[in-house]
Input
Amino acid sequence: MADIGPKDQLDVALQQYETVRQESLGSMTHRTQIVSLGLATVGALVAGLLAFHGGKEPVTVWADIAVFAFAAPLVSLFALFMWLGEVRRMMRAGSFLWSLELVINEKFAKALGKASRPMGWESAYLRGIRDRQNQQMQYPYVVVFGTLILVAFVGIGVALAIARHNRNVAAHWTAVGLAGISFLSAAYAALEMFRILKLTKHDKCNKCGIEYAATEKGCPVCSQYQ
Output
């Protein structure tokens, strides 16, 4: 079996970097599609209900409850959890790319005999988070999260108002029960969002002095590709 030299290790690392980078970019596209589809579905449900209200046949209060208290929050919260999953996937890929950049830079430095950092996108971004100089990227997450939560609870509020207007006790308590379920789901989503927005913690290798993501089990330079 042929020996695997430093150049072969570098080639593998570069190929892996490209693969994971594409996964990260794909996750960004998926997030946009999830939010767009979720909001469009809620809009279609409400538009369909309003169209039935404008027809000749009367629409019962239960149809309103089904759309505003059940379908709209369900779709909105489902889209939210799918979106959070894609955010997690992107962050996991970013953390791995950061570690991989350290490995690639180390290999280049050894090959050139001097310090070299040809790869640095994820490293620069995460270093900015550590130094509290790169916080502007958090607001899109907050906006999307807030929008989907707002859509869910506006639907609940409309359903409660309709039930009260029609003086339907059963419909009112049904909406209240569904609101409770939505609230618990939103609380769990908020907890997950808090974890995502937390600043990335760092560790420092005692052997080589490289800083790396605390989510890694050990220094990526010392423990791999050596």
User: Anything to note?
Assistant: Confidence is low (pLDDT under 50) at residues 132-136. The first helix runs from residue 6 to 53. The beta strands are 202-204, 211-213.
